[in-house]
Structure formats: C-alpha cells, structure tokens
Design brief:
The termini are far apart. The strands form two sheets. Strands 2, 4, 5, 6, 9, 10 and 11 form a seven-stranded mixed beta sheet that branches. The chain has a four-stranded antiparallel beta sheet with strand order 1-3-8-7, with no helix packed on it. It is an all-beta fold.
Length: 124
C-alpha cells in the first residue's frame, strides 16, 4: 500500500514536500516513482528512485527543481519540490514497480502499485 501526503495550495516560486509511505510488502527490488496528472491530460512521469536510493531518474521539466530521496530509516520516499510553477499543478501519485536493467521506467504501465494521489496547486 502506498499513501501520499503533503500536497496543498502554494504560490509560484514556493516549495512543497510530498511523502509516499509504503507498507504491506517488501520493496527492496522496486523502483518508486512520482507521476502527475493535470485535468484533461495524460498521467506524466516526474521522477523515480530505486528503493535502495542509489539511482534516480528525472523528467526534464523538473530537473534542478525537484529532488527525490529515500528515508533509509523509514519506508518512505520524499519529493522536495522547489521553485514551483503554475504548470506543476496536478494530482501527484506515488507508484511502485519492478524494473530490469539500469534505466528506471517512465511508463505508468511499468508500475504495479499506486497511491490515491495528492493535489498540488500552484497559483500565479
């Protein structure tokens, strides 16, 4: 089970931290990703991290602004979002899935488990 938290309404330029808490299984061989979906748009890959925290992959649109991390003391993945823009407004979902090879997947279909989502709204 994955549960997101930390969404909210902020002004452009502000920061937010989202958290994804995992439970009910072993995720040691999983990648955890964040996706987002704005009204009328497809679900979009944002960032992913291996459960060990050793590898990450970012969408170009968030590189340099967002940082994903694993809290090795807890079954939690955090997403620090800085310099937020109105176009970052969306429902953000946490997802977990297995992966092969070195490159972490960006296709939502590669992820088996999903949280319920948390709304992030950035006003201009």
């Amino acid at each position: 089970q994955l549960v997101e938290s930390g969404g909210g309404l902020v002004q452009a330029g502000a920061s937010l931290t989202l958290s994804c808490a995992a439970s009910g299984g072993t995720f040691s061989r999983y990648a955890v990703g964040w996706f987002r979906q704005a009204p009328g748009k497809d679900r979009e890959f944002v960032v992913a991290i291996t459960w060990s925290g050793g590898r990450t992959r970012y969408a170009d649109s968030v590189k340099g602004r967002f940082t994903i991390s694993r809290d090795l003391g807890k079954p939690t993945v955090s997403l620090q979002m800085n310099s937020l823009k109105p176009e970052d407004t969306a429902v953000y979902y946490c997802a977990a899935g297995t992966y092969n090879g070195w490159v972490l997947p960006t296709n939502p279909r590669s992820y088996d488990y999903w949280g319920q989502g948390t709304q992030v709204t950035v006003s201009s």
